[in-house]
Design a protein that fits this description.
By secondary structure, the protein is of the alpha/beta class. It folds into three domains: 9-88, Orthogonal Bundle (Arc Repressor Mutant, subunit A), CATH 1.10.10.10; 93-211 and 369-432, 3-Layer(aba) Sandwich (D-Maltodextrin-Binding Protein, domain 2), CATH 3.40.190.10; 215-366 and 436-506, D-Maltodextrin-Binding Protein, domain 2 (3-Layer(aba) Sandwich). It has 19 helices and 14 strands. α1 packs antiparallel against α4 (79-88), α2 (36-43) crosses α3 and α10 crosses α11.
Length: 507
């Protein structure tokens, strides 16, 4: 049986062939067109496929039904309009990827998004959504998405931190976002979040949120250890000493991190060990054969194995991270996921946000990183156009329309930060944030989006290796992990952009 699914090539071909027939001029406006069964016999397809094609042409105003079941050319359809419609009639197949190993918030948001997609399809008939789900570890999903986004046409859309943009731009992967009328949404956003959005005057990155690299601390546990939960760490030595006190009082490793968070810490410890790091600007790629890399690795191994101040948690099990923390069993985490739960449960007073210690050049390392939508330049033109329109309308509906209220009714916690020039006008921005949290966010934003350009990319390839090594009974050496890091960075294909060292030749 022939299939005419929304993204079916057969449906595309059938629509094009009918348009070619209509463009030939053999059909008059006052004469009925062939029936669906006649079209089906002539085109050698099912009448169901013909019906889907005819419905699409009707939605575009090219044909109309009247006098019972007869179909006619619409009065507005002329030779020029037929030609234009024929060129635009291809379906815009928007392929979206999602990893099932995600938070409850993400899953609830996906339910609302599917409803929005259905309504969007009614106003934009050419758009067809293809949601593909994965059930794999984050590192595998990240690697697949990056590879396919750079080399293939799917996914059509992807969510990326702005720190990925330089890597993606090297491969000319981000396409132009066709905003249409929804592009007015950009006027609502604060300019500081848009500095990475435009290339050659065209929007290629639509920010929708921020991630923050700060420590979330249980204030009561700090007080039990005789520590001030609001005081900033003066140095990494001060941080380690306070961790020792927390461990002595509480009896567990004071800092809990995911595999991804652990690699982020390692990356920035390496930067902290480099006194030549510039005071401002984008962080360079790490040379994992450098002295600072060895210093950072030794510090990580000492904190993890010797002093046992860090616990690696399963990042794929969000409940395993959130529940112990909200129950007061964890002194400190480098993870934002539990903050939304704390806000909704009115437990914000229990937790305080603290910046990581500064480096030897007095530069901050607790930072903000903008996250946004990117459309795949490898997708076909109609898909790119529909995708650009979709994400602008989605974000506007959530933050400037009725979508915010819809999300709240579904139990989705609102955003903890707003990208709007006037956050009070954002309909999906939490109004429950305590002032000390807001102050921390403002401080981080003033520091700028200063992240390692290869941090997440290498983490995707490296996390499984780190988890395997750290789960062994005996500590691993700096040399072993540095070799893994070099090979992982080399395999990720991002070394030769700035550092021309080849690990296979030097190990």
């Amino acid at each position: 049986m022939q299939c005419s699914a929304p993204n079916s090539p057969l449906l595309k071909r059938t629509t094009q062939r009918i348009l070619e027939e209509l463009e030939s001029g053999r059909y008059r406006r006052d004469e009925p067109l062939p029936s669906r069964r006649e079209w089906a016999r002539g085109l050698n397809v099912s009448h169901f496929t013909v019906g889907r094609a005819m419905d699409l042409l009707k939605s575009r105003g090219l044909i109309e039904s009247r006098e019972g079941s007869y179909t006619f050319l619409s009065p507005s359809a002329g030779g020029e309009s037929l030609s234009v419609l024929r060129k635009d009639s291809a379906l815009g197949e928007i392929h979206l990827w999602a990893n099932c190993k995600r938070s409850t918030r993400r899953m609830k948001q996906a339910i609302v998004r599917r409803r929005f997609q259905k309504n969007f399809g009614k106003t934009t008939p050419a758009a067809r959504f293809f949601n593909e789900k994965f059930d794999v570890p984050f590192s595998d999903f990240l690697s697949r998405q990056l590879e396919n986004f750079i080399q293939g046409e799917h996914p059509t859309l992807a969510e990326f931190p702005q720190t990925y943009l330089e890597f993606l731009n090297d491969y000319k992967a981000p396409g132009v976002l066709d905003s249409g009328e929804a592009g007015r949404y950009l006027d609502l956003l604060n300019d500081k979040y848009l500095e990475h959005s435009f290339v050659d005057g065209k929007c290629r990155f639509l920010p929708f949120g921020c991630s923050y690299s700060h420590l979330v601390c249980n204030a009561e546990i700090f007080r039990q250890a005789g520590l001030n939960p609001d005081a900033e760490f003066q140095s990494w030595d001060d941080f380690a000493d306070q961790c020792e006190r927390l461990k002595a009082i509480h009896g567990v490793e004071p800092l809990h991190v995911s595999g991804r968070g652990l690699f982020w810490l390692l990356t920035h410890w390496v930067y902290q060990a480099d006194p030549a790091l510039p005071a401002r600007g984008r962080l360079p790629l790490i040379d994992w054969q450098s002295k600072s890399a060895r210093v950072g690795m030794d510090f990580l191994l000492e904190m993890f194995f010797d002093r046992k101040l860090i616990r690696l948690v399963n990042s794929s099990n969000r409940l395993a991270q959130i529940s112990p923390f909200l129950a007061g069993q964890v002194p400190m985490v480098l993870e934002e996921i539990m903050l939304s739960a704390a806000v909704e449960l009115d437990q914000t007073a229990l937790f305080t946000l603290k910046a990581l210690p500064i480096g030897p050049n007095s530069s901050p390392f607790s930072l903000m990183n903008t996250v946004g939508w990117v459309v795949n330049a490898n997708a076909d033109e109609m898909a790119r156009r529909c995708a650009g329109q979709y994400i602008f309308e989605w974000e506007r509906w959530i933050h400037d329309g009725e979508g915010g209220a819809t999300m709240r009714r579904q139990g989705v916690a609102p955003s903890l930060n707003s990208l709007f020039k006037d956050p009070d006008k954002d309909r999906f921005y939490s109004d429950k944030l305590p002032e000390n949290w807001k102050r921390t966010y403002r401080d981080l934003e003033e520091c700028g989006r200063w992240e390692a350009s290869d941090s997440d990319l290498v983490a995707g390839a490296l996390i499984p290796i780190l988890q395997d090594e750290f789960q062994k009974d005996r500590p691993v050496s700096s040399e072993t992990l540095l070799k893994h890091l070099l090979l992982a960075q080399y395999d990720a294909g991002i070394l030769d952009r700035e550092n021309n060292f080849h690990p296979n030749q030097k190990l």
